[in-house]
Amino acid sequence: MPPRAVLVGPMGAGKTTVGRILAERWDVGMRDTDHDVEAEAGKSVQDIFVDDGEAHFRALERAAVSRALAEHEGVLSLGGGAVLDPETRVALSGHPVVFLRVGLADASKRVGLGQGRPLLLGNVRSRIKTLLEERTPIYESVAAVVVDTDGRAPAEIAAEIATRLEEQP
Ligand code: S3P
Predict the structure, then answer these.
(1) Ligand 1, closest atom to CA 118?
(2) CB of 80 sitting under 6 A from ligand 1
(3) Which ligand 1 atom is nearest residue 9's CA?
């Protein structure tokens, strides 16, 4: 069985928090590709970026997504940049991909100082702004369902995802 839901969206969209609630609601497991990459590499995402570079991280991430799509039957959350990879975008087609949309203000609030997120080093708000502008069309292109998260509680977002995916043919 493929994943019941695959959550995509930028850092600060709430993928991990919402994913956990959704998994609990459905009584299924929750898996997160950042976590899989860290387990495989034996170090944090931050350390992989610093020691080995972003390209190496992206290669590990591509493999982690492909494995998780094949193995995981519950809720799967992808790292914010996973959809940049063309092979990953192809692999996602046909899956119940949910884009958690978030605006600059809420994303900035949720990531705080951006600790542990190497791509936000420097000016967190302006980095998020650029990433949102560059990536929103990509998230939209892979998503079966788009859910707005601004100003909403994680439980409410999870409930909307469940209802909308349950309605899908
Ligand atoms: C990244 C998002 C992070 C993590 C890495 C790069 C990105 O995941 O994969 O720091 O490119 O947006 P989260 O979206 O889970 O924070």
Answers:
(1) 10
(2) yes
(3) 14
HEC profile of 113-157: CCCCCHHHCCCHHHHHHHHHHHHHHHHHHHCCEEEECCCCCHHHH
Phi, psi of 148 (to 5 degrees): -80, 135
Q: Tell me the pLDDT tens digit for each residue of 71-95.
A: 999 999 999 999 999 999 999 999 9
The answer to whether the CB of 60 is under 6 A from ligand 1 is no
For ligand 1, atom 8, the nearest C-alpha belongs to 79
Atom of ligand 1 at shortest range from CA of 16: 15
Report pTM.
0.96
